[in-house]
Structure formats: C-alpha cells, structure tokens
Amino acid sequence: MRVLVVGGGGREHSLCWAISGSPLVTRLLCAPGNAGISAIAECIEIEADNINGLIAFVEDHQIDFVVIGPEAPLVSGLGDRLQNLGIKYFGPCAAAAQLEGSKAFMKDFCTRHSIPTAFYKRFTNVEEAKEFVRKKGAPIVVKADGLAAGKGVVVAYSVKEAEQALTDMLEDGLFGKAGSEIVIEDFLEGEEVSFFAICDGKTALPLHSAQDHKRVGDGDTGPNTGGMGAYSPSPLVTNKLTQTVMENIILPTMKGMQAEGTPYKGILYAGLMIVNGEPMLLEYNVRFGDPECQVLMMRLKSDILPALIAAHDGVLNDFDLRWYDETALIVIMATNGYPGNYENGSVIKNLEIASTIQGVQVFHAGTVLNDDGEFVSKGGRVIGAAAMGNNITVAREQAYKAVKTIDWPNGFYRADIGLKRDNK
Fold this sequence. Notes:
The chain has four domains: 2-94, Rossmann fold (3-Layer(aba) Sandwich); 119-186, ATP-grasp fold, A domain (Dna Ligase, domain 1, 2-Layer Sandwich); 191-318, D-amino Acid Aminotransferase, Chain A, domain 1; 327-421, Alpha-Beta Complex (Glycinamide Ribonucleotide Synthetase, Chain A, domain 4). Helices cover 30% and strands 28% of the residues. The chain is built from 13 helices and 24 strands. The chain has helices spanning 10-19, 51-60, 71-75, 78-85, 98-101, 103-112, 126-136, 159-171, 239-259, 292-299, 304-313, 351-355, 392-405, and strands spanning 2-7, 27-32, 42-43, 65-68, 88-90, 120-123, 140-144, 153-156, 182-186, 191-200, 204-206, 211-212, 215-217, 221-224, 229-232, 265-275, 278-285, 327-335, 347-348, 360-364, 367-369, 375-377, 381-389, 411-412. Strands 12, 15, 18, 20, 23 and 24 form a six-stranded antiparallel sheet that branches. Strands 3-2-1-4-5 form a five-stranded parallel sheet, sandwiched between helices. Helix 1 (10-19) links the parallel strand 1 and strand 2 (27-32). Helix 1 runs parallel beside helix 10 and helix 7 packs antiparallel against helix 8 (159-171). The longest helix is centred in the middle third of the chain and has 21 residues, at 239-259.
C-alpha cells in the first residue's frame, strides 16, 4: 500500500515510525513531515491545512490510504473529500469532527445523550459572560469554542483571572474566530487522564491509557501548552474504570453520533477528570493526542495499519491489539519562550547520541535541516525524548538521560514528568 500521513509534529513522527514497520506498506509519505520523519518517510512540502494541495497529491500519486494526524484538516473536511474520491482514510468526517471542532457542540451533545460532564453555559457577549462568572465565583473554566492549538482553555482561580480570559477571547480576539463564542464550565477537582478508543462507526475498541502534563512549568504551573510530557499506562485507569468509561461515555457517544446521522470513525480521545473515582468528560479530541500518541505507539506490539484500515472499513468488532506491559514515558523539549513568543532556527545537537540510549526513541515535533545538515528548531514544541522501561522509574530515568544528552541551549523542559508516579 502507498500510505500518506498528514501532519508534521511528534504525533505524526510516531505514527510514521509505527506504520513504517508494517509489511503492508510499499511506500510511506508524510505531508509536510519534519527533519526526523524524513529518515523513515518521504516528506512532501504540502501543509496539513492545504486541503486542495493534499487532494491533488493523493490523486496524482495514487495513494491507497491516508492517515490524518491533526484536528484542523479533519474539521475542515479532508476526510469527506477523500471519501468522495473513493480513497480510504483514518479519521472522522467533518460533521463528526465537531466533537473537537466546537466545544459548544460537544457540551450540547453530552446533554442530549446524558454523558457525564461539568455544568456549563455558552456565551458570545462579554458582559453577560462576566456577570455569570461573578455569580458563580472561582475557580472556573473558560474555553474558546473552536480550535486553538491546545491553548484555548483557561482554568481561572480567581474571578479577575476569568474576566481577563473573557476579555482576551471575546473582546480582543486572542483566538480569532475560534474564540468568538466561549463555554464557561464548572471547575472539577480530581486527576486528569487521557482515554483512547479506536472507532469504526459502530464498534469502539479501547486502547491503553496515558497521562499528559499540559502546563508549561514544573509542579503544573504556568499556562497550558499542547503537552510537555506523558506516560502510559495510567495507574488510575483500572479494568473497572475502563468498563465505566466505555459504558457511560464512549459507547453513548458512538450511539448518539450514529443516531444523529454522523457515525464516528477514527480515534476518539476522551480527556477525563476522575472525580471521587468517577470519570467526567472534560473534552473530546478527534485525533491521537500529542505527546500521548508517542507513548502509545511505543507500547503497541501489533501492526497499527490493519487497525486503522479496519476502523475505516467498519470491521473492528473482531479486532484485537496487543501491547507491551512496560511503561513508556516522554519528555518534551520546547523552545525558550513557548507557549508565548519564541525564535526559530537554533541548532540542536547530539540527537543521534541520545537515540542510542537503551529503550530510547527520539521523536521530532518541530525540526528542519539547515544548509550544513544540522537539526534546527522550527516551532514551540520541538523534540520528544521517549523511553520504555519495566516500570515508570526506569522509563523516566532513561528519558531524562536522553534529554540531558541533547545539546540545545535555546530549549527547555519540565523536570517532573511522571514524578508523582515514580516509586524511587
């Protein structure tokens, strides 16, 4: 098969890494890819949001299967265009992708189908929103309705902070059209986990769990980011909790989407808050998380490609995936200044040396090669040092050994990824 992976981040590097091992693949391409991906796939200079360019390429090069990594092309209808051409792809159609494309849609959907989630209200008027916040008090959560690259959620611990977030989004247009409507919801106290299921429109097959570290600083301080590290599995997600999540959240979602005429195919990523042992749905993502995808792909023993194809074909009901028992952990290295302003183009050295450390795999998220053949940064989150180990202590030690081997003065990382699970 000729397979095209759409996207150019760490998630897509790990997907290419996993897919490249499949005996089904005769040619693996990635658009746009990055410097790390270029070692295992042909990188094509077409951006992930260039729908017309991607469609033309797929037709010209007789691509058999397309794996859509990021959320933006899914919400924009890349899958629908491929479907119309009779080309198989992995991911939801545009209508189903609204589970992530619109927070308001997702919350209203949960209400219609009795899926446990936090109480919420929707607003487009800033004064009405501020009045609601003053009545409710803090802590409270403010969310931009649309896609905001993982940065559209503000957990406000004071009314003043919430009002500032409302001003930023509704008055100052911080997130553009994505923030023209906002959702305000109750703050849930608990521990957050990422739960994944692969779906074929009718059947949902649970994958292993992961835990992400969204805030930029140690001790979960500072603003939210796209994710500064993750580990899998999460000890919080027991067999009993998995059953509860499937029965109360995932399967009602599958039935609800089918009933509303938009069957859900692809990966369904449920961001959950575990409140007194019970799962509450914070958000849905319609693609693999980043960096959760990287740790999941490291632990996956089965060939991923047949599972992705089965999701499209609607034949997951007899499918099974095998996993390594070991723990995988990833530490993200980001450019100084991220998630605010930062400069591209700084040289990153010793990546090859870091890759030789036992159990380590280095995933590129934002790299290009300069004229001297050196890796240089292009983006906020740039490198992910991932490691497998018999337990989280070993995985953590190896991942941080790799991070400390990488020579990148213009980068930073959190020092506490997985620390609270470390038994050392």
